[in-house]
Amino acid sequence: MEAVKWNGDSVTILDQRLLPSKEEYNTYTDYFEVAEAIITMETRGAPAIGITAGMGIALGAKKMKVSNFSAFKDEMNKIFECFSNTRPTAVNLFWTINRMKKILSEMNNIEEAVKRFEDEAVLILKEDIEANKQMGKNGSKFIQDGDIIMTHCNAGALATGGYGTALGVIRAAVEEGKKIEVFACETRPYLQGARLTTWELLKDNIPVTLITDNMSGFFMKNGTIKKIIVGADRIAKNGDTANKIGTYTHSVLAKEHNIPFYVAAPVSTLDPQTESGDKIVIEYRSIDEVAYIKNVQIAPEGVKILNPSFDVTPAENISAIITEKGVIEKPAGKGIMELFN
Q1: Which of 161, 174, 181, 264 places its Cα 20 to 30 Å from the Cα of 134?
Q2: Domain check: are 20 and 99 in the same one?
Q3: Beta strand pairing status for 320-322 and 261-264?
Q4: 34 and 98 together in one domain
Q5: pLDDT by residue (tens digit) across 22-40?
Q6: Closest CA to 233 of 315, 319, 136, 310
Q7: What is the distance between the alpha carbons of residues 262 and 243, in angstroms, rounded to a whole number?
């Protein structure tokens, strides 16, 4: 399945807001529409956001009507700013933007710059898929035959260029012949687990059971859940990890019950510029995501609502961080910098 696709002069995005009831793809010819698709969660997941932004930037460059490079550069900086303002927590977004900014700094010809942007956008997608598959191989060693693995949110093909991070590790274990089962938390308030993770796993014929977020402790305590694996939107220098809201709660419960807790993410999600998790900017989204489910109001009018989209799991709660470049076991005390040496 392809969450986002580059067509040469347009970008096609799978509208994840409609899943699982409807599989619909929208094609955009304007970079601003691509940015809006990121803001509105038509596409989501840190790696996929970065990939989509790269394609949107390439599209903006290709569609631009200017006569000199100075004007082209000014307009490109506006496009970079537009995408910078879409989602603040996913570091992959800014990793992509910085790659594109570097290209612009090396160019002095519009035609050559447009071609470089397009090539880079396609390369970012290709690199992500390859990284996910290698990550899967690196992480599958932690999965044993017969394991029941819990995951939170969606860190699969829908959240990446393809294959997935957390679900990529699960897919790799299945491809190795291991018989495993997945427990997917529904992931309130946006229900990425209920709507997306279960949809992906059913398509791949991987056994999956859906539970509500507040059931996880019950299944950890009674011994059902053997491992937990999640994705990430940003991993600080010390190993603290931002992921979908509720991840921190699961990590505390896992620590209490001696259950291994793994994070799978590409190197593009590692952020050595951010010292620790308390420096990570947490996005707050619309209260309507909490007050409504599928346009049905579930909370009384006028009640105060808060909707942080992410929380931070401290490194000491993480058994290992799995990347395409290697695995950092017990990251507390050593962080992520060994992967940059």
Answers
A1: 181
A2: yes
A3: parallel
A4: yes
A5: 999 999 999 999 999 999 9
A6: 310
A7: 12
278 is catalytic: no
CATH (domain of 187): 3.40.50.10470
208 closest CA partner among 182, 226, 185, 173: 182
pLDDT digit string (tens) for 50-87?
999 999 999 999 999 998 999 999 999 999 999 999 99
Please state, in angstroms and rounded to a whole number, the distance separating the CA atoms of residues 116 and 274.
Answer: 29
Q: 162 near 132, Cβ under 8 Å? A: yes
Does the global pTM surpass 0.85? Answer: yes
**CATH code of the domain covering residue 90:** 1.20.120.420
Domain tally for the chain?
2
3-class state of residue 205 by DSSP: coil
**311 in helix, strand or coil?**
strand
Write out the residue range of the structural domain in which residue 58 sits. 4-133
Residues 235/263, Cβ–Cβ less than 8 Å: yes
Q: Which residues contact 183 (CB under 8 A, 6 or more apart)?
A: 148, 149, 150, 151, 208, 209, 210, 211, 216, 219, 224, 225
For 30, 59, 110, 123, 240, the CA distances from 7, given in Å and listed in that order, are 13, 10, 20, 14, 37
Kindly name the residue from 128, 147, 213, 233 that is annotated as catalytic: 233
Residue that finishes a domain, picked among 116, 133, 150: 133
